[in-house]
Amino acid sequence: MTASEEYEPSDVSPDAGELESIAALRPYQIQAIDEALISVADGSGRKLAFIVGSAMGDTSSRVPGIPDAFYVQRVDALVLQGRLESRGDASRMQYCEIRLRQAD
């Protein structure tokens, strides 16, 4: 357990019902979620919690039953794809910043 976990646990994982909703997502829905996440990011960096909350509030990409943990997984995927950059602990949205990938 890290010092920060001693005071505040990691964010909650999806439950069984949420996992079923995630499994039922269509590729176009995942793409809409990704686009919503990218649209909130900027070049200076924003808290992951803000990025996720804003994307979840976007009615054009919102899918009922999809938890914030899935949005965090999508941010991780976008980081791996090189579309976003992260700094901090993504398992705790308050302690992670996300920004658009800076050009080399």
Task: Report what the structure shows.
The protein is mainly α. It has one domain (13-100): Orthogonal Bundle (Arc Repressor Mutant, subunit A). Helix content is 48%, strand content 12%. The protein has a 3-stranded antiparallel sheet with strand order 1-3-2. α3 (27-40) crosses α5 (68-80). It is globular and about 40 Å long. The mean pLDDT is 89.
Fold-level CATH name: Arc Repressor Mutant, subunit A
Q: Which segments are poorly predicted (pLDDT under 50) over 5 or more consecutive residues?
A: none
Q: Helical region count?
A: 5
Radius of gyration: 14 Å
Shape: globular
Number of domains: 1
* Helical coverage, percent range: 40-55%
SSE class: mainly alpha
**CATH architecture identity:** Orthogonal Bundle
Q: CATH class, anyone?
A: Mainly Alpha
Give the distance, in angstroms, between the N- and C-terminal Cα atoms: 36 Å
Strand neighbour order, sheet with most strands: 1-3-2
Strand content: 5-15%
Average pLDDT reading:
89
SSE arrangement, N to C? HHHEHHEE
Q: Quick one: how many beta strands?
A: 3
